[in-house]
Structure formats: C-alpha cells, structure tokens
C-alpha cells in the first residue's frame, strides 16, 4: 500500500478510504460508490490504480465514449467476458449475461464496474442509473459499481427506495500540494526547455537550469499568480510549462543571473499577468516579453514596444482561435446572447431588441449619462449576472430562424458552461439558474463574424 501511495502524491487519505471500502478479496464489496470532486483532483487515477493494485476484475467505462445505452451495455459485457461482437440491447439482457456467463467464470470473485464522467448517465435511459445502483440484487455476483463525476450527489436526484451509494469526496489540491505535485515533474520541464531553446547551452548553464532551487523559485512565483483563479492541475501544468521557458530566457541570454530572484520576478510578473488572460485558451505566442537587462530609457522603451507587440500577437491569436472554434450554429448565437445580456442594462432590452419599441425622448440626464468616459463603459466594467429566461429572450430576438425550445438547445447552454465560455450552473432551471459571460469583446466579435452577426449594433455602449 505504501508503494501505491508513493505513486499518487497528496491522496493518502482518499486511497486509504477506498482501500477500506473495497476491502480484501474474500470480503463482500459495497453495492456502489459515488466518487465526486472537481476536475483534475485524481479521482479516476486513484480508483484505477487501486483496482490494479488489488488485482480485481474491473471494467473502466468512459460515459462520453459510450454515449448510448446499447454501446455502454456492450462495453460492460466485452470487458468482463473478453468477447468481441457481443450484442446487448437492454438492461434485461445485461443481467441475463451476468447471471449466465459471468457467474460460471467468476463465481464470488470481486468485480468492479467504474463509470467515469458518470453525469452523462443522467441524459440516457432514466432507469439505467437506478438499475446500476441495485445491480447486486439483479445478479448473483460480488459486484460493485463506482460512479466518478465532477458533480455533487444532489445533482443526480436518486428516486425514493433506491439504495444510495457510499459517498467519497476528493477536495481540491492546496497550494502546497500543487507545488509538490508539479515539482515532481521538474525533469520534464527542463527537458522541454532545452528542446525548445535555439541557443547553445553549455555545461555550466545547463547545471544552472537543472538546479531544483531555480524551478522552486519559479513555481512559487507562478502559483502566487495562478492559484486563486485556477485549481485545475492539468491546466496549471500546461501554463507552468509555457511560462518556465519565458522565465529562463534572460538566464539563457546571460542577461540575468539565475540567483537574482528580484530581477527574475520583475521579468516574469507582466508575462504571468498576460498568460492569466489566456487561461484555458491554450494559446502560446512564439515571441515572449523581454526583460529589462539595463535600467536606461532606451531599454525600457524597447521593452515596452516588445510587450505591446506581444499583446497584439496574442490578440490576433485569440481572434484566430475564436473563428476556428467548432461550436454548433445555435450555440454560437446562445454565446452571443449571453454576451449581450452580460454587457447591456436589462432596462434597455426593449429598445435594443424590439423593432416597435416606441419613441424615446432624450432627457438631459440621459445625454450626460451617454457622455461616459471609457472607464465607465459597460464593456469595461466587466460582465453582469443574468437569468436564463432573459438569455433565451435575447436569443430568440437576434435569431432570424424560428425554432422551438428543445432539450438539445438547453443542453448547449450546459456545454457552454462546461467549456468555460459562460460561468454558471450546468443545471438548466428557469427559476434558479443565473449565468455570466466570461469571454471578451474580441472573442465574441470573432465568433459573431462566423455567423454574419454584428455585435456592436446591439451593444448599449455603442448606440
């Protein structure tokens, strides 16, 4: 067990809880487990590694790949029987196969079915999730079902009379735990730096770059900026890999010594702030911000121009990324409607989106309010929260096609939330749900350009 814990750092308590629940091979397994937590918290890794360590017969099913009940049933049967071209169309056929073939093969040996991203099961047959919770009662096997998901238990709405699963929660990593996990990959960061650098790196310089203290100082600076807005380990590792190259550029160019932490922080601080704006977009610029090697006016002007050029390149990259963003047609209009709802006052919706809104007299107060300075524009103050019914009202106002309100249309709102283009709840409820658009004007203008829509025409700041 100690060997398993050493391979998965900062998850000792969760591994021990799973070990206590799954027990030894001669003990009966629990009916079902519900493993929840935020993204990139080690849920699937801990479950799969522990099952491999216990040498239990298990089937790991990704509910995104198995998008229909038939495919999911066949994936379960194929994983347990190792037979290909198996047909299984219903839960009744699955239980018959488990009671027939599997009972003879496994008898009372432990069997575990792991459903990763189990929130997708809610959109399938309404009785499927309930059947898997009581699978032990339908077949004469020592079988356990484990549901791994990013949602909390309350989002699944289990019916009365169903045996509820044992709940196990994976909390977010703390700042110290993130530091420890990312620091374990120091060699891969250094190898990426050496492979991406065009300069000739001699022996002494290579030793300086491989110094653990240099990487530790970078991680402290990096997490001090990125820890509050982002707890996703995968995204943090990606952004750290990109910014570590920029952190070491002045060291490679012999402009700053690797031990001069003050100058290195002054060099990397504006770069980290710029990278923070590109979080989750996976945009990497070829040119980076140069550090002030000499404190004179000429060098400062050159650094400022370099920084402005980098921002322009990132802006162009953002537009290119937005235009190539493969969203469905109506999802793009939903995203545009979300932006308009976030940056327009609710009292101006009638004037902006209705043709026959009546004439409006210009009062002196309105004229003065219109003469705003740039800092007080709605598009500069940040997005405001809006309700779901207001989003749908704007969506139907800007959409020329007449379509009905279907479940597929509402599901696209949850997809936009999952893609982190809209902040809010994935659950669609007209009375409760509130959202906020978190993309900028340049991004939304590029998306609107792909569908031939003029966003500026419907923004209150520009009328």
Automatic annotation (TrEMBL):
GO CC terms, sorted: nuclear origin of replication recognition complex
Subcellular location(s) of the protein: Nucleus
Predominant location: nucleus
Alphabetical UniProt keywords: ATP-binding, DNA replication, Nucleotide-binding, Nucleus
Residue span, Origin recognition complex subunit 5 C-terminal domain: 327-459
Transmembrane segments: none
Family to which this protein belongs: Belongs to the ORC5 family.
Protein's name in the database: (African queen) hypothetical protein
The species this protein was found in: Danaus chrysippus
């Amino acid at each position: 067990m100690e060997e398993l814990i050493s391979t998965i750092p900062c998850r000792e308590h969760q591994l021990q809880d799973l070990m206590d629940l799954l027990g030894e091979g001669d003990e009966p397994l629990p009916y079902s487990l519900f493993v929840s937590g935020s993204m990139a918290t080690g849920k699937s890794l801990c479950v799969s590694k522990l099952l491999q360590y216990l040498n239990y017969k298990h089937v790991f099913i990704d509910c995104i790949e198995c998008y229909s009940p038939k495919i999911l049933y066949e994936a379960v049967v194929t994983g347990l029987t190792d037979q290909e071209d198996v047909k299984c169309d219903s839960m009744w056929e699955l239980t018959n196969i488990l009671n027939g073939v599997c009972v003879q093969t496994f008898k009372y040996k432990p069997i575990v079915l792991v459903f990763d991203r189990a929130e997708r099961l809610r959109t399938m047959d309404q009785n499927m999730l309930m059947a898997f919770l009581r699978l032990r009662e339908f077949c004469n096997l020592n079988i356990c079902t484990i549901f791994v998901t990013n949602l909390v238990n309350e989002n699944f709405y289990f019916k009365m009379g169903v045996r509820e699963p044992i709940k196990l929660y994976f909390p977010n990593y703390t700042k110290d735990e993130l530091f420890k996990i990312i620091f374990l990959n120091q060699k891969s960061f250094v190898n990426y730096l050496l492979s991406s650098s065009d300069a000739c790196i001699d022996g002494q310089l290579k030793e300086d770059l491989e110094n653990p203290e240099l990487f530790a100082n970078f991680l402290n600076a990096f997490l001090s900026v990125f820890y509050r807005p982002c707890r996703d380990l995968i995204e943090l590792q990606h952004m750290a890999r990109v910014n570590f190259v920029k952190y070491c550029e002045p060291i490679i160019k012999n402009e700053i010594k690797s031990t001069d932490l003050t100058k290195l922080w002054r060099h990397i601080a504006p770069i980290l702030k710029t990278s923070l704006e590109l979080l989750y977009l996976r945009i990497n610029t070829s040119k980076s911000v140069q550090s002030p090697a000499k404190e004179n006016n000429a060098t400062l002007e050159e650094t400022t121009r370099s920084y402005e050029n980098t921002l322009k390149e990132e802006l162009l990259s953002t537009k290119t990324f937005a235009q190539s963003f493969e969203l469905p047609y109506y999802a793009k209009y939903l995203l545009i409607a979300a932006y308009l709802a976030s940056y327009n006052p609710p009292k101006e919706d009638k004037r902006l989106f209705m043709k026959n809104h009546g004439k409006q007299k210009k009062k002196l107060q309105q004229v003065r309010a219109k003469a705003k300075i740039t800092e007080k524009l709605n598009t500069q103050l940040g997005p405001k929260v809006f309700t779901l019914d207001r989003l749908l009202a704007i969506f139907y106002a800007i959409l020329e096609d007449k379509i009905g309100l279907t479940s597929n249309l509402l599901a696209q709102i949850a997809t936009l939330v999952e893609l982190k283009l809209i902040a809010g709840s994935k659950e669609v409820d007209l009375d409760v749900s509130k959202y906020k658009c978190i993309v900028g004007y340049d991004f939304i203008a590029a998306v609107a350009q792909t569908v031939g829509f003029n966003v500026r025409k419907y923004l209150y700041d520009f009328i």
